Amino acid sequence: MREFSAGDGTQWTAAVHEASGPDYKGRFYFVLSDEAGGEDALVDVRWNNARTAQKTLDTMSETELRRRLRSATGRGMSDTRS
């Protein structure tokens, strides 16, 4: 998990979630959560194992995290806000 702030000062958490199912290929995907508890998933950003996913997340710059956030919220992908 990585915490970062968006351009407007909102705090976000970037994490990796695991999809269930029989196929292990691309099982791990990128998720962004805001401080209010909403989530946006970039399901097209996938990894085959947790170690690689976490390493990628750990090495992403804050600029890259904010770019991914704009991509997720701009496309309105998999929005699970209540």
Concise overview:
With 82 residues, this protein is an alpha+beta fold.
Task: Walk me through the structure.
The protein is of the alpha+beta class and 82 residues long. It is built from 2 helices and 4 strands; from the N terminus they run ββββαα. It has helices spanning 50-59, 62-75; strands at residues 2-5, 11-18, 28-34, 39-47. The chain has a 4-stranded antiparallel beta sheet with strand order 1-2-3-4. The longest helix is centred in the last third of the chain and has 14 residues, at 62-75. It is globular, with a radius of gyration of 12 Å.
Topology record:
Layout: E1 2-5, E2 11-18, E3 28-34, E4 39-47, H1 50-59, H2 62-75
Antiparallel strand pairs: 1-2, 2-3, 3-4
| Proportion of residues in β-strands | 25-35%
What is Rg?
A: 12 Å
Quantity of strands, as a count = 4
Task: Report the end-to-end length measured between terminal Cα atoms.
Answer: 22 Å
List keywords for this structure.
82 residues; alpha+beta; 2 helices; 4 strands; 29% helix; disordered C terminus
